[in-house]
Amino acid sequence: MGLRRKFNLVLLVVFLLGLTVTGYVSWDLLQRNAREDVVRNADLMMEAGLAVRAYTVDQVRPQLDLQLMRVFLPQSVPAYAATETMTPVKQKYADYSSKEATLTPTNHRDRAADWEADLVQEFKNQPTVTQLSGERDTPTGRSLSIARPIKITNPACLGCHTTPEMAPATMITRDGPGNGFGWKLNDIVGTQVVSVPIRNAERAFYTFMGSLAAVFLLVFVVLNVMLSRMIVHPIARMAHPADQVSTGNFEIPELAESGQDEIAVLGRAFNRMRRSLQKALQMIED
């Protein structure tokens, strides 16, 4: 096996080992950073939804009490207001979603899907849990979902959701008596769910690893050029004269001795050895 092949084999092994370790460390770090970034985005969306709910309850609904006696206005419902506010965000960022998912909603669009119903049940089973998070596959890719329980803590909500008889007549006229009732104070009736895509980590990882591979390729080429010019070719030039001298042919010219590196030192040493050997043979012949 030639010197160049040995050198390249060692370099390849070192690179693969470094690439494996770097890939493992960078993947873990990028995944953790991306998850923290996604959680911050999801928390921001969730807090925005809660702010809209609070604003609707505290400032919008009291202004509509008289109108609600004549016609039901869904804009006075906190969950409706929060959902409508987030709709432009979902239209612009299709991968992002926010939902006020309930088990018995007045509006059918708020009905919990199977996986959302499982979250509601988990909140019911563990009343002290205030937030759940987890990853799931969606048609657009991997997504992180954060959920918080919707708990009836405001008695004002029961005016519309206890029984059809207690609900505003205008609401019954609009939505019917079949949905959104049976709620009780301190009951967990649903979950606020925000889902945010988690693609940045994979994109950053592949970009980083691609850049690392490109750098290695460049270093590999540069080192091979340097190896050829500074070591392999000079040694190959020395090999032929050494072979000729070993057979007794002293007619070939001496090696160039210019330079101060190890190859030049080796050339000077070879020339001295050649002259010494030539003189010794002449003495023997004389």
Lay out the secondary structure.
Blueprint: H1 3-60, H2 65-68, H3 78-92, E1 97-102, H4 114-125, E2 132-138, E3 141-151, H5 158-161, H6 169-175, E4 188-197, H7 200-246, H8 262-285
Antiparallel strand pairs: 1-4, 2-3, 3-4
Helix pairs in contact: 1-3, 1-7, 7-8
Short characterization:
By secondary structure, the chain is α+β, with helices and mostly antiparallel strands. The chain has 2 domains: 23-198, 2-Layer Sandwich (Beta-Lactamase), CATH 3.30.450; 204-285, Helicase, Ruva Protein, domain 3, CATH 1.10.8.500. The chain has helices at 3-60, 65-68, 78-92, 114-125, 158-161, 169-175, 200-246, 262-285, and strands at 97-102, 132-138, 141-151, 188-197.
Describe the structure.
The chain is an alpha+beta fold and 286 residues long. The protein has two domains: 23-198, Beta-Lactamase (2-Layer Sandwich), CATH 3.30.450; 204-285, HAMP domain in histidine kinase (Helicase, Ruva Protein, domain 3). 60% of the residues lie in helices and 12% in strands. It is built from eight helices and four strands. The chain has helices at 3-60, 65-68, 78-92, 114-125, 158-161, 169-175, 200-246, 262-285; strands spanning 97-102, 132-138, 141-151, 188-197. It has a four-stranded antiparallel β-sheet with strand order 1-4-3-2, sandwiched between helices. It is rod-shaped and about 135 Å long.
